[in-house]
Write a structure and sequence with these properties.
Two copies of one chain form a homodimer.
Chain A lengths: L1 E6 L8 E6 L2 E5 L15 E4 L2 H5 L4 E5 L5 H4 L2 H5 L6 E3 L1 H13 L8 E3 L5 E4 L2 E7 L8 E7 L2 E5 L17 H10 L1 E7 L12 H14 L4 E5 L16 E3 L10 H7 L12 E5 L7 H13 L3 E4 L13 H11 L1 E7 L3 H13 L14 E6 L2 E7 L4 E4 L5 E2 L1 H13 L1 E8 L11 E5 L8 H17 L2 H5 L1 H20 L4 E8 L1
Parallel strand pairs in A: 3-5, 5-6, 6-7, 11-12, 12-17, 13-14, 13-15, 15-16, 22-24
Antiparallel strand pairs in A: 1-2, 1-18, 2-3, 4-20, 8-9, 9-10, 10-11, 18-19, 20-21, 22-23
Chain lengths: ~500, ~500
Amino acid sequence: MQIVALGGLGEFGMNCTVIRHGRDLLVIDAGLMFPEEQVYGVDIVVPDFSHLEEEKDHVRAIVLTHGHEDHVGALPYLFERVRAPIYGSDFTLGLAARKLREHGLPHDRHLKRVAAGDAITAGPFRVEFIQITHSIPGSLALAIETPSGTLIHTGDFKMDQTPVDDRRFDFQTFSYYGDQGVLALLSDSTNAEVPGFTDSERRVGEALDGLFRRASGRIIVSTFSSNVHRIRHGPPGRAVVVAAGSQGEPMSALSRIALGDHRDVSLEAGDLVILSARPIPGNEKAINRVVNHIFQRGAEVILGGRPPYHVSGHASVEELKIMLTLTRPRYFVPIHGELRQLLSHARLAERTGLPRDRILLAASGDVMEIGPQGARIAGKVRAGRVFIDGSLEEVEEIVVRDRRHISEGGIVLAVEAIDKQTGALDGDPEIVSRGFVHEEVRGDMLREASGVVRRAVEAATREERADRGVVKALIQRDLKRHFRKSLDRRPMIIPAIIET
Amino acid sequence: MQIVALGGLGEFGMNCTVIRHGRDLLVIDAGLMFPEEQVYGVDIVVPDFSHLEEEKDHVRAIVLTHGHEDHVGALPYLFERVRAPIYGSDFTLGLAARKLREHGLPHDRHLKRVAAGDAITAGPFRVEFIQITHSIPGSLALAIETPSGTLIHTGDFKMDQTPVDDRRFDFQTFSYYGDQGVLALLSDSTNAEVPGFTDSERRVGEALDGLFRRASGRIIVSTFSSNVHRIRHGPPGRAVVVAAGSQGEPMSALSRIALGDHRDVSLEAGDLVILSARPIPGNEKAINRVVNHIFQRGAEVILGGRPPYHVSGHASVEELKIMLTLTRPRYFVPIHGELRQLLSHARLAERTGLPRDRILLAASGDVMEIGPQGARIAGKVRAGRVFIDGSLEEVEEIVVRDRRHISEGGIVLAVEAIDKQTGALDGDPEIVSRGFVHEEVRGDMLREASGVVRRAVEAATREERADRGVVKALIQRDLKRHFRKSLDRRPMIIPAIIET
């Protein structure tokens, strides 16, 4: 049996795990990642599914553990290439269906609703869905029975003893499989560095209730939009506004409220804004900007702090140890985290008594092979990141690289008309730049550069001139040198030749 | 008397405050800011000093409170425009001199060394330097006596009772001025939201000592490079490596050590890396990347946590209240912070008993006027941000704007040769793009676009063709529409015409 993650190992987001037995494949989740390349017009990042595309006829099922973007956000890109039945809870499939619809992908007969306790069969795999607790409804873990043994995939989980929807974490079923024998445990590493036990979601409700009772003005609450457990408060006779945008997203409702240009909500002194979410690393500055604007309008802001106005949806160290002890796996694969979380989780497993050689630390693309002789990383398949822009289309890596280059130093175009017969310049070379220098102020610089181009063409031999590629390279070389010497700048330089 | 901040109010960094009495000016600090525009080739941001440039003959002195970049980093850009004596402590002037040297600015006879307890006279201003404690040696507060009354400017401070260099916070002098009567207090707002009392720097030493005693491998410590109080540890017989790069800066020593390409230090399993610094908002992802690489090499990482491996250099709420109580100012101006810190500091002052109408909440550029009839915002002077790139030169705002536009959608150039006499196309229009689509894969797209340009020119009337500006606008309009319709993308479009 083989396990390959196409994303989510050594990186946050883009979770997608493939289980292979013989020729048959089972895919678990198809998530996206929010990119650092956002400034380069990249909206989301999805896994490179070409490995699955090659094997599309052998994919028996796509199983979704829950509806967060990092688990279902890339589903349309997978489903475009691989048509297989998709299993998930009611809530998860609701979100999945919407995504498939947005991409114009017919899907009705592929969606298969399951609930905790159900089991399905797909090729050689039997998958039982297990009730867990997490920060979105309808989250499930998986027990995957294969001819080689049973795998437990936790999905994203915590062990909430008092969940808001009263669907408790199912210790019994995990314990049952632990008794029967688990070949490998794949477990959520997000909070493997966080000591203790994660607070119950119910505590947030209590904390918000306390705030609601004390507040004198209006209340605006912002939270992760999938965290619907928090969207039921509001004492009678008092309006509570729930606004998206807890991460400072510029076009969100909360941002617009903060800036005073929301159609329906305008903040006043005495109003209270509660950010019931944690800042995702990288968003701190954007959140700060929103908070400053809220203060400017005289409203109060609460973010973080005690009593908990936000709790994590992921298991902390003590819960992770319970999961290891309950399932007693032969092999352990920490999943869902950057390398530092995976490593901390691995060390944790060692401390619970698992020998180091039974822990598989893998990166996205690594092929983990588990057999009678043991477990090992047996190879690598194609895996990587595909950039997607606002039009839902791929942005190739070279395009992003060019955008980055230009964004750092600007672009200079040297346009010259060259006589087809003689190879001589026809008219003056024209220099056009953007993001380089302020052209209105630096007209002299453009004239100088035009002279550099003219001299480069005139200095070329007849043979060189006959080859447009050579002429372009000469112009590029001379202009590059010229700008470095005269301005200490390194723009992208593009010679363009028109033959007349 | 007037007080104007050219930076540092409502923004973090770029601290620069101007005190005016009659025609005479005193400048306090000239700091820089690290930009969000980093991806657009902007290395640092400095205040727009044009207001001071206009008044350069009336600037009596530049006073530096301490040597952090957000207080002295823009000094060369100020000194280029305004030659005035520069006062500061030995340590501060050492850092300042180096900066002036880098810019080739002769400065020897302008630097005037002072120590705590010294007083200088500059025009109508008498400035006494007061010993405070902060996270860099040689930090001083200022008591500025003017004919209208005394101002206290705290600089950046905390009230460390056990400083590492034994230079204790000078309660007596603040108390003395409080007794004599303080017209206005300008006080550091950085930690106005942090309850309690900031830990002593000495506790970091104790915490690090504890780690050093337990560590079995090598130790690498990274801290803010100006925090020299922390750079004296190292038990005999044990090497401690102090490496810059606590913020994850890609070219720093720590980054290179983490990536395994540092000339002198290579990490091994069992080594310990201590990040004795806090993540500055916006740097979290870069720091995370470094930590992941350190883990990958098998070393341990300690960042944050208790006992304190880092403490702030700024006063918390209790200290800020003591400062207000000690100096008993008539007016209060919270400085050094984003709006949310300034506002929290203002509320704090109200709670200590200062009436709301004696608290001046101003933004950079606001002219605060304090006179016998009271205090008010009396107007605005030119203030703003100037972008500086790696060559130490200004990058104009329009250049940054163009870089941003291109970085989001790429750039398309439509090059056409037009016959001077007839206005007709000479040869085929050439389409060149970068950061737009993968040209090798999308050659069809370029040919289509060339056709769009041809048709745009051919459809133009004889009169339109006579005006190159009109022809360019027509080409731009048609190409823009074409790309939006066919690809749903919005590149920057630049038509370039060569006359033949």
